[in-house]
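As a representative case, we now present a protein record of this kind.
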Amino acid sequence: MPIKNIHSPKVGFFRFKRLGQDYLLTNDMGNYAYLNPSIFNRLLESKLDAGRQEYNILKEKGFIHDKASLARPALYRAIETYSLKNASLGKGTSLHIVVVTLRCDHLCVYCHASAKNFKLTNLDMNIETARQVVERIFESPNPNIAIEFQGGEPLLNFGTLKFIIEYAQEKNKTINKELLITLVTNLSTMNTECLKYLCKKKISLCTSIDGPEAVHNKNRKVLSGINSYRHTISWFKRAQKQYFGRVIYRPNALTTVTKYSLSYPEEIVNEYIKLGLEGVHLRQLNPFGLARKAWQQIGYSAQEFVDFYKKAFDYILKLNLKGRVFYERTACIFLRKILTDSDPNYFDLRSPCGAGIGQLAYNYNGDVYLCDEGRMLSRMGDESFKIGNVVQNSYNALISSDTVRAVCTASLLDILPQCSICVYKPYCGVCPIYNYSQEGNIFTQMPNNERCKINMAILDYLFEKLKDKKTEKILRKWIDADRRPPAVRMRRGQ
């Protein structure tokens, strides 16, 4: 319609796009509406009849302004909703990723962390460095602290891992923060004594299971030649049994999708169901570490991943229609942002992103990076996202660095030309480190970005599904079903 016909005084701010036969509208409070072209035109012309159902719904969601919606009670509700959506900002760093060693006995085809040979003990974190890491962590003003052990394989430096657990838990007795400690492990060096210790200390466990045996072993090879799948599954089941009734969060798993995985969407889902898990997180590859070097062999286009994702999603939806509650976690994260007033605080889908102000990564030698992706780039020889060292810098000095400020700016959707006008702006986010690794610049043209294409396609798909009331009811159940620890919800894990 011609611009001259738009009557703006009663029209609230919104972004929109054509989705199928309808227009999808969203606003900064995260509300959305589907309008057919006729109603959409009447909205723009302020010709909707007051008192009609569509008028009241649009007014309640903030798409129409009148005297009632501009009164203080309505404004306070809108402000409260917006505040809840952005509650994580200003609280300080919550997720602290600690790399106690770069050693690993796996040689995964996509290893984002570029793990090193398990015999190189000079790549282990020592006790004094570990002590300083904990000191920096507890300098964060955030009342909720999550320590996540990454690697390498953290269990190869069990002594330092144990020290950090006990020092942090002891220190917290006087500081009284909400402390969660998570271990991301391949389980290859797990033993009975270690498992009992982790259970006793209430350490949340997460491992990698890429699907059925053939898929998992193709992606995740072990240097010793043992069957990675069988070993992982065996210890995962033992961990499930050990933790049952003793630890609030049950052991969980993550899958990374490679080119080889694309042919097995249903089989991957079935593997997670077979293990008694409540959902699966279908994660695309990131161009870091070995994955970047081997991209021609293991990588794929955005469209190839989206095709795989839709097949898996539709299969999961069929299972739900038959009564089995099982979710896909990328969808869960988006759905929580779309359907509730709270935000899951998933760092990749925040504005600004969580780098520095939400998470920090501590390398084995005490070097600090504004996120784990920044640390991964350092293993490729690029120290652009290193912000200091735990021995030399305080927490305040670390997060006040120019690098943190630059990345915050580069991930603020309101100032990014394409993102600021995108209909999915309330639910999405950008990763400047990903942009940098792809194009050499933390600022980039997002429509040309493979990550952007994937997010857009998934959101298109979800909003199409939400049009169906029966499907919407199922998707709302997924939000309640995703009860994983906050630390595991905040980020992808590797």
